[in-house]
Design goal:
Glycerol uptake facilitator protein; 11 helices; globular; mainly alpha; two-stranded antiparallel sheet; 2 strands; 293 residues
């Protein structure tokens, strides 16, 4: 008689589930794979939109004697709130069903077991990465036409531009390290969902690792496919707005297309792969799935 359990899966069972999920992902035909990747890019962008709004602006307070002053939340509190709301993106990906490049680094577990070919692994990564980019850029276009960046007297746009500048102004090694740490946490979040038996389990498994990476300022390549192009769109396609808030956004001139690709997307993508593969996939595979010689 088989044992009936309602508890979450144990790590050995999680590794076996991760391996089977990797096989299924690698075998997906092009069109469904690409469609789900576009969705994931849009889902992560929705989390980024939420985080941008939460990070925007300050509060104007009028005291009892009529004195007006501006109050802002402490840096850590703002980052914590931004991280919590950014979780929306990965929750939509995992629960709603979509293909995210950074999470798919875990397919390496199935590859290491010889159940997925190297060609199938790289095909999945290439299609999903491109699809994520398409989904993120589509969201950028739609969001630009909403003119949401003008909300709260331009505070949302200022926040978006500051985020874009900060991410475009990273040194290569710094962006690489931030990318490694980021996807270590993202893949740990996905790994924890393999233990889940309910939707609530999955949501709770996602919240703390994702909040931690955002609050700590780590770099996620797919999120940056929204954050930086959106800031670039505001800067170049509404120059009047950008000029009007330039005094509030230091180093706005450093926000450029080459800086996006060379200072951020390239090193962060490399770092994400290293973090997801080396810090999570390979370690758990070697502990739970590697066959003794």
């Amino acid at each position: 008689m088989s044992e009936i359990r309602i508890d979450a899966l144990l790590p050995k069972e999680m590794a076996e589930r991760a391996e089977q999920v990797g096989i299924r992902k690698a075998e997906l035909p092009f069109l469904p794979l690409f469609t789900l990747a576009v969705l994931a890019g849009a889902f992560i962008s929705l989390g980024a939109i939420f985080a941008t709004v939460v990070s925007a602006g300050s509060m104007v307070i009028t005291s009892a004697d009529g004195t007006v002053f501006t109050a802002t939340l402490p840096f850590g509190v703002t980052r914590l709130l931004a991280g919590l709301v950014f979780c929306l993106g990965l929750i939509l990906v995992v629960v709603g069903g979509a293909e995210l490049f950074t999470g798919n680094n875990l397919i390496v577990m199935a590859w290491a077991s010889g159940k997925v070919s190297g060609a199938a692994l790289l095909r999945n990564w290439a299609v999903v990465y491109f699809g994520n980019f398409v989904g993120a850029l589509g969201t950028v276009v739609l969001m630009f036409f909403t003119r949401q960046y003008t909300f709260s007297a331009g505070a949302v746009g200022v926040a978006a531009l500051k985020i874009g500048v900060a991410k475009s102004d990273l040194a290569f090694a710094q962006a690489l390290a931030l990318g490694i740490l980021c996807n270590g946490l993202v893949c740990l979040a996905v790994w924890l969902t393999f233990s889940a038996r309910t939707t609530a389990d999955k949501v709770l498994a996602i919240v703390f690792p994702i909040t931690a990476f955002v609050a700590a300022g780590f770099e996620h390549s797919i999120a940056n496919m929204y954050f930086i192009p959106y800031a670039l769109a505001v800067k170049y396609f509404d120059p009047a707005f950008a000029d009007s808030v330039a005094s509030q956004v230091p180093n706005l001139e450093r926000l450029t297309m080459p800086a996006f690709f060379l200072n951020n997307l390239l090193p962060v993508t490399i770092g994400n792969v290293i973090g997801g593969v080396a810090l999570v996939a390979v370690i758990y595979w070697s502990v739970y799935l590697r066959k003794p010689k």
